């Protein structure tokens, strides 16, 4: 169920990511290896706000500073994948929109997993913690 809700959040951030990338890359002729991370990190900020507003509990396990540091680490890791996939597909002859959509789709899954299990982990339920 969480992933379905995250599809809305991630989809909103993904559209923002794609539009900003296309604006930078095609509109302002910014190199893909610069345009992709700028768009990705901007979309990550949108994604974080939506995550804590709609889906995940802020400070579920970490203090705000630690939560943001872990979030940033996950974002940096996924940003590397995003930039690599985007650049690789562009070099292989894909169009800008197709390259970014593929990278965004891969990033959507990686982002959800990172947020769900690292940034906003929920307490484990079980005999030792039944109220969680």
Could you describe the 3D structure shown?
The chain has helices at about 1-25, 30-55, 65-90, 95-120. By secondary structure, the chain is mostly helical.
Q: In a few lines, what is going on in this structure?
A:
With 132 residues, the protein is mainly alpha-helical.
What is the 3D shape?
A: elongated
Low-confidence sequence ranges: none
Number of helices: 4
Radius of gyration: 16 Å
Can you count the beta strands? 0
List the helices and strands and how they pair.
Elements: H1 2-27, H2 32-55, H3 64-91, H4 96-119
Features of the shown structure:
132 residues
